[in-house]
Amino acid sequence: MVMINNYISLADTDCRLEDDVAFVRAKCSIDGCNSEAITRGWCRMHYFRWRRHGDPVTVLVERRPPGTTCQEPDCDQPHGSYGWCDMHYTRWRRHGDPRILVDPVPRRGELNGNWQGDDVGYIAVHDRMRRRFRLGSATNHTCTVCGGQAAHWAYDHADPNEKTSDLGPYSTDPAHYIPMCVPCHKAYDLARLP
Question: How far, in Å, CA of 8 to CA of 146, rounded?
Fold first, then answer.
């Protein structure tokens, strides 16, 4: 008994007989493709191209041979995604243009678009102590109470423009912060809380 699908022409097939049954292995119907047809007369690659893009011969990105460089002029870096080097590809993903140059210096303080001036919270003020006011970590200083190594920037509770938060009172003025060790800081704050 021989079973052959009616819609496949024998010229495009490889046949083999096993136990009086013919197994038909059709070739992909796309010109120039010699892969085995899986479904719809196409190989796996052309079938998935059709599923993704609606056309089995669509190639959205042409692959560049290994060893070629970035497609941007005057760039000798090896190509990666879409023919660009990592830098140009990242620029394209972030800004839509691989040639755009972004100011590499981060804008800190008043130059930053998110700057809030004195309208900041407890955590942001302590972050400013380390970064903006260049006081660094409190561990680089000695405790003003006991003379040991400091661990925290402690608020001195003397600012007339004191702010409050769920974490406690604070000031946006760096002059009202002093370096203290943990035990001294706890004792200092507990003595000043209502």
Answer: 92
